[in-house]
Amino acid sequence: xxxxxxxxxxxxxxxxxxxxxxxxxxxxxAFYHLLIDAFDFLPENxxxxxxxxxxxxxxxxxxxxxxxxSQPGDVICFYFSGHGxxxxxxxQIGRAYxxxxxxSGRWIxxxxxxxxxxxLQPSHVNFTCVFDSCHSGGLSLEAEAKSPPMEQTLxxxxxxxxxxxxxxxxxxxxxxxxxxxxxxxxxxxxxxxIDLDPSPRFTTIPQAKTTLISGCAPNESxxxxxxxxxxxNGFLTRSILDIVNQSSFKIDHRSLVDxxxxxxxxxxxxxxxxxxxxxxxxxxxxxxxxxxxxxxxFVDSR
Length: 302
What we know:
By secondary structure, the chain is an alpha/beta fold. The protein has a single domain, classed as Rossmann fold. The protein contains 6 helices and 14 strands. Strands 2-1-3-7-12-14 form a 6-stranded mixed sheet, sandwiched between helices. Strands 4, 5, 6 and 9 form a 4-stranded mixed sheet that branches. Helix 2 packs parallel to helix 3 (110-117) and helix 5 (235-246) crosses helix 6. It is globular and about 50 Å long.
């Protein structure tokens, strides 16, 4: 079994003309070392891109190389800390893609990731995505949130028409995206950001090629600490670092996300007391994979 990873952290969004972040490069470096120290990844099998080195072309090329090198029984991890957003489907009214935003180039949706990993059998290679980003768009709060404001025309289009959101990192085929139909409702603009009512089906997708751990629910924001606070990472990343260091490096996906959710609440209360912020890390993918160990080879080939 070989473990491979692509690790991305972006603070500098000047090329995209988006407000930068503070802790994402620190997140990526910490996660890089966690992969080596706790999960036996070899440095030569980890491709790491920080700030302006993390272009869309480079990220996708690294993922493409990683996938083509993988064999049944191997592990792939794609870690991203940076901005996320949403884009309407270019042809289908009522659908939107969650996207992650590289330092330069086209924003990356689940469709681009699926095209890279289409050849993978989801039951043979453990492909895990960890996205410390969010997709709520237009947030205006006194906090470091990983989703830049959307243009007003885009906000109006999404809030008026969208009933389906394709989560970034699930790697669904065009045919399988039907399982996401009507997975959100009640889209509205509240307090400067797009709010919605997510369906419980958002978290279980049998056709997913990956196990996705995302920073928050689709109606929330992923937060990071402040330079003068004790928490100097994105809250999801910090929680994973703390939990893994306490668990002898073996923990199943469901337990990891449950424990991370509790820790994120503590971080919010510590760094942003009294603001009423909520962040709930999500676990998305095949239900039978939730009890598999995080970043281990699969026990069976279901």
